[in-house]
Amino acid sequence: MTITPIIGLEVHVELKTKSKMFCGCNASHFHVEPNTHTCPVCLGLPGALPVPNQVACEWCIKLGLALGCTINQDSFFERKNYFYPDLAKGYQITQLQKPFAVNGKLDVDGRLIRINRVHLEEDTGKSQHVGGETLLDFNRSGVPLVEIVSEPDLSSPEEAKKFLIKIQQIVRYLDISDADIEKGSMRCEPTVNLKIDNVFTPLVEIKNVASLTGVLNAIQFEIDRQTKQFQEDGITKATGEKTTRGWDADKSVTFLQREKEGSADYRYFPEPDIPPIVFTKDQIEAIRATIPELPNAKIVKYKALSLSDYDANLLAENLAFSAIFEKILGGSTNPDFAKFITNLLIGPLKTIEITIDKINPLYFQNLFDKKSDLSSSVIKQLILESYQTGTDPLVLAQKQNLFQVSDTGALQDLAKKVLAANPQAVADYKKNPQSIGFLIGQLMKASGGSANPQVVREILEKLLK
Ligand SMILES: [Zn+2]
Fold first, then answer.
1. Does position 238 have pLDDT exceeding 60, yes or no?
2. How many domains does the chain contain in total?
3. CA of 140 to the centre of ligand 1 (A)
């Protein structure tokens, strides 16, 4: 029996525009007094007319372009009809037939995952259940929401997670959303079914997944559940209908919410209050021109500097961090220098908050040129101190006498003194050469930490013979 998971993701990203999608209300809704950012439009009062947010439309197209999509120059909004208390109008304005962007792709570790569509819609209000009552907050109602729908090309929970992280990085590079999964400004609904030999299990959509770990666990749970169900019932035909299951993060299980749901149930029709949206080729190209170099392109560039996959991914993780790396690197193509900078950035400098303005590339270059005269721990200490004080690390090294003493004559004299002062350690060494560590430590201490440990070891070994 060969089991192949077939996984697709629907990702919702809340745009961080100033105003909402179809009205002028303030779009921020985190830590805001409930129902203070509302108006007749986003409360769905009769007769209120929506006016689309131009910036939101442009950002949706921008994301579509970043994901390699084709942009529909002519597009329009539609009504998706359903009833829920947090949807005051009784319908959501969204896009079905003509989304802004279609047919994209995203490279996830060398595998091209197809993107079906990137469309724009509005968020709903929030319901809160308190002591048997339901409270409604409409501050979120009408906040612009982009939906990215992948084709079911993902084949494992881990790959789905990587895809999600890539989307998050791109959205953040584009600076159109903070894409925070825990906060809910990025949400994800996986669809999962299995191909078991030549049979497909029924498709399940999972709702309410609120963390990256949740995505991983929910998909794995569904794979296991569907496998087990197939073994018990032997499902022989796919119905083509989608079942919706919720994710219970506390119990780590999915549970049935709705059966047999299709787009026909929502009676979609074109939104009569909003004319079709048209973007000219020039407008689309102008949007494309605002897209920065994206994480995948950066990773390729960094790996060309002989950096490892791991390092390249870390450096490209966010735009600010990669900008710092590139500023220090300057035009250099020296792999050793690239690795040297990387080690400092993901090492000591990662422990503090650094800003690009305070970075002086020359100091890194100076330190790199003298790296053979400084121990690695001293280099780490110097780069931190240099960043914090704005001083050339070589000046600091000079002042604190941190250059390694490789002058064997001076070290030899010191070594003789250390051996004379530690007869027991010398006796121990004769029995067990491993114990030389203690004497190395003593000599390093005697040199004020400035000796080169390799040279210290060599001198001691020679004298002890
Ligand atoms: Zn409003």
1. no
2. 3
3. 9
CA of 410 to the centre of ligand 1 (A): 78
- Of 226, 256, 287, which marks where a domain is finished? 287
Give the distance (Å) from ligand 1 centre to CA of residue 25: 4
Q: How confident is the model at residue 434 (pLDDT cuts 50, 70, 90)?
A: confident
- Whether residue 239 is found in the same domain as residue 337: no
- 162 & 60 share domain: yes
CA-wise closest residue to 168 among 28, 49, 318: 318
Find the 418 Cα to ligand 1 centroid distance in Å. Answer: 79
**Mean pLDDT of the region 28-52:** 96
C-alpha 138 – ligand 1 centre gap (Å): 9
pLDDT single digits (tens) 136-152: 999 999 999 999 999 99
pTM, full prediction: 0.84
Mean pLDDT of 193-220: 91
Query: How many whole angstroms from 321 Cα to the centroid of ligand 1?
Result: 37
Q: Which residues surround ligand 1, an ion (CB under 5 A)?
A: 23, 25, 39, 41-42
Residue 410 has pLDDT above 80, yes or no: no
Q: Distance (Å, rounded) from C-alpha 61 to C-alpha 175?
A: 13
Return the closest-CA partner of residue 381 out of 406, 357, 352.
352
The DSSP result for 386-446, as a single string, is HHHHT--HHHHHHHTT-S-B--HHHHHHHHHHHHHH-HHHHHHHHH-GGGHHHHHHHHHHH
Of the residues 287, 321, 341, the one at which a domain ends: 287
Nearest in space to 187 (alpha carbons), one of 226, 158, 218, 228:
218
pLDDT tier at 236, thresholds 50, 70, 90: low
pLDDT at 35 over 60: yes
Same domain, 195 and 89: yes
Cα 291 to averaged position of ligand 1 atoms, centre (Å): 30
CA of residue 179 to ligand 1 center, whole Å: 22
Cα 89 to averaged position of ligand 1 atoms, centre (Å): 12
CA 425 distance to own-chain centroid = 52
Claim to verify: residue 310 and residue 451 sit in the same structural domain: no
Ligand 1 centroid to 36 CA: how many Å?
A: 10
Q: Which domain holds residue 457?
A: 408-464
Residues 229 and 353 in one domain: no
Dist. CA 279 → ligand 1 center (Å): 25
Q: What is the pLDDT of residue 230?
A: 87
Q: Are residues 356 and 439 in the same domain?
A: no
pLDDT computed for residue 23 by the predictor: 98
